[in-house]
Amino acid sequence: MGIGVKDVHKAWTWYRKNFGFDIPIFEEAAEANLMLLYTGGKPQSRHAVLAFNMQGGGGFEIWQYTSRTPVNADFEIQMGDLGIFITKIKTPNAAKALEFFKNKNEDTITEIVKSPDGKEHFFMKDPYGNIFELVEFDDWYKKKADKITGGVAGAIIGVTDIEKSKEFYAKILGYDIVVYEEEGVFDDFKGVIGGEGKFKRVLLRHSETRKGHFSQMLNSSEIELVQSLDRDIKKIYENRFWGDLGFIHLCYDITGMAEMKERCESLGHPFTVDSSNSFDMGEAAGHFTYIEDPDGTLIEFVETHKIPVMKKLGIYLNLRKRNPEKSLPRFIINSLQLMRKKD
User: Fold this and answer.
1) Cα separations (Å) of 256 from 172, 275, 323?
2) Which of 5, 70, 147, 258 is deepest in the core (most CB within 10 A)?
């Protein structure tokens, strides 16, 4: 999950201490010169950190403009507005997680409620106004009794046409299982801004086990699409740049970028950004591209070519020499712990 912030170091400290994102894959200050379509037509300087939680799940790309002051939406963003509204975070026990954050006086905005599929979950905010759903999951890379959260487990995304969006997320991203699809007013949304309204709501998961170099660590994920039925909606990033404050994109680790390009074009969603061959983030390298979902929400694909294994010793792993469908051995993934940022 990409998160636009005002102070990358302050934000990362909060995400480390509260969500356990303490494994940096890269940290770099540079110019974003390929995102011109989304940055006002000119390159913008930025400082970014990509960090993971070793319990399993997706990472955070914490992203700060340094060439301009990042701006917030000029309206109150509500449930159902178009784009990524909420990031899902894995927890082994929602009740314990809620108690943990309440004891730290963090901004928990709902109590424990069951979702339509019977999972216990709750919502909270970080200090910057971003909303997270802490939801119980069973699959983990590691599961330690003293760890209350894992990594990213998906997102809640506002859409205009739930059927059209279901097709996009199924055919391009493989979310082809409908866990539930309901319409109405939902008790578990109450307490979230705009959550008292009437919605169509669908939860999607993958039918196929994930493959790839990092599949063991990234685990399963889910996408929840929400369509507002009783109010006018706005685009979350209307009149703003990618990289401004909030959830800026949803990123997927993939292999076979050429095949993905063909698939996206055939389904009417061509790449809008393409690093063409390889980008170098100093500590990691690969090929990245972007597409838009039917409402303009940004989806990033990254085909990773190089990652640090023992950065202090200058040891990096070339992934292009490995079977793209096979997960890296656990001892290699575990070596990422050597880069842990401690507080």
Assistant:
1) 13, 14, 11
2) 5
Q: For residues 203 and 177, what is the distance between their CA atoms, to the nearest angstrom?
A: 8
- Going by C-alpha positions, the residue among 238, 224, 231, 244 that lies closest to residue 86 is 224
pLDDT band at 242 (very low <50, low <70, confident <90, very high): very high
45 forms beta bridges with 31
Mean pLDDT of 137-165: 94
pLDDT at 335: 85
Nearest to 210 by CA among 167, 151, 253: 253
In whole angstroms, give the CA distance from residue 342 to residue 17. 9
DSSP letter at 92? S
Residue position matching structure tokens 């063909």 = 262
